[in-house]
Design a protein that fits this description.
Length: 269
């Protein structure tokens, strides 16, 4: 547990190397990255995964917050750990938090990787209404099995879901410290207020954009638009992968983050 501005944030670390801060998405926490992806990253990085305020084992929230405030938490965590800076990977909502982090605290961001995310505002392509309704009905049904099955279906591609043991792996991950519905609603409110498109044009942090082509949560065109507005950004897509591309292709996802973060040093190792 690390104290940041009077708030306790739960942190998990593994691996040796340059620091890599992982920022989770909506209803996510440090247990939701998937073991294969974490293992692949830990070969080259000091991997730092933490729980947002109100999620996992971190302090409870007392009321509404913005994504910029979640970015302040991330910046405070980097400093509290005694680091001069860190490479940053944010996915989905965490990718929006990572954008706010790079814009508001560029001094702590060595490189930026944005996965399955958007820049908010009217130009973004939000989750299709039919998918939103599907998710809402599953969550509000009170049937935990139905909600888990829905999350499995909307976050991962059909071909990946068909693999042996995939459903059991998803169940095991989801069973770890479930996030309260009230916190998820506060996160959704913060996402609704997020707009960064016009600000990203001034971003000077080296940026990699990652997105699955079959993402049902946030269309791949969101990733394309981010790569267009961030100066010098590079886009890498995962053909046929769903929202959680790093679950479906953990080795390639980790290799791309490593190459982006370490540059020539990656090929030298």
């Amino acid at each position: 547990m690390i104290e940041v501005d009077g708030r306790s944030l739960h942190v998990e670390r593994r691996g040796v190397g340059e620091p890599l801060l992982l920022i989770q998405g909506l209803s996510g926490h440090s247990g939701h990255w998937g073991e294969p992806f974490l293992e692949a990253l830990a070969r080259d990085f000091d991997v730092i995964a933490y729980d947002h305020r109100g999620t996992g084992r971190s302090s409870r929230v007392e009321g509404p917050f913005t994504l910029a405030q979640l970015a302040d938490d991330a910046a405070g965590l980097v400093r509290a750990l005694g680091l001069q800076g860190a490479h940053v990977l944010g996915i989905s909502m965490g990718g929006m938090v990572a954008q706010e982090l790079a814009l508001g605290h560029p001094e702590v961001v060595l490189t930026l990787s944005l996965g399955c995310t958007m820049f908010g505002g009217p130009r973004s392509i939000f989750t299709a209404p039919a998918v939103q309704q599907e998710i809402s009905e599953a969550v509000m049904s009170g049937d935990r099995e139905r909600a888990l099955r829905n999350g499995f279906e909307v976050n991962l591609s059909e071909s990946f879901r068909a693999g042996e043991g995939r459903w059991e792996e998803w169940q095991a991950s989801a069973a770890q410290r479930p996030v309260a519905l009230a916190v998820t609603l506060l996160q959704l409110q913060a996402i609704g207020d997020f707009q960064a498109a016009d600000r990203l044009t001034s971003l000077e942090v080296p940026t990699l954009v990652l997105h699955g082509t079959e993402d049902r949560m946030l269309d791949v065109r969101n990733g394309e638009m981010i790569a267009e507005v961030v100066p010098g950004a590079r886009l890498e897509t995962f053909q046929g992968a769903g929202h959680l591309f790093f679950w479906e292709e953990p080795e390639r996802a980790a290799a791309l983050v490593r190459e982006h973060a370490m540059g020539d040093r990656a090929s030298a190792q």
